Amino acid sequence: MKANPQNVFTTLARHPALFKQWLGFGGALLDGTLPARDRELAVLRTAYHTGSAYVWAHHARLGSEAGLSDLEIASVSHPDALWPVEDQLVLQVADDLHYAGDLTDATWTALCDRYDEPGRIELIVLVAHYTMLALVLRTLRVELEE
């Protein structure tokens, strides 16, 4: 039995040219250079900030597959949770971009210490992409699958 496609795909596929390009872009982010744990932590914090139940639901599963525990996934919405310094940085990048649309100097310095240039670019683009996707899903009224 073939699974039904996700609503995000069936909705965006109504604009075939855009959908084709978006699939490649989104796929590049999901299969990028960042560790899967970092990627999913950033996406989940972005889903929390944007209030996207759709992104949250899909990426909670992916986060679990990437090694995030159920407790860690539940704690993404708690800024005061005790996170290792590496995770704190990923969360801080998502926070800075959400609240200011930019990184503080301290966050940028920490980002430069941890990631190479492609990694820095990828993390920032990842958060920006999922912020955009949350807006698109909300505006187009894309519902979470059963």
From TrEMBL:
Keyword set, alphabetical order: Oxidoreductase, Peroxidase
Signal peptide feature range: none
InterPro entries the UniProt entry points to: AhpD-like, CMD-like
Molecular function GO labels: peroxiredoxin activity
Pfam entry (one): CMD
Residue ranges annotated for the Carboxymuconolactone decarboxylase-like domain, each copy included: 16-85
Native source organism of the sequence: Nonomuraea jabiensis
Name of the protein described by the UniProt record: Alkylhydroperoxidase family enzyme
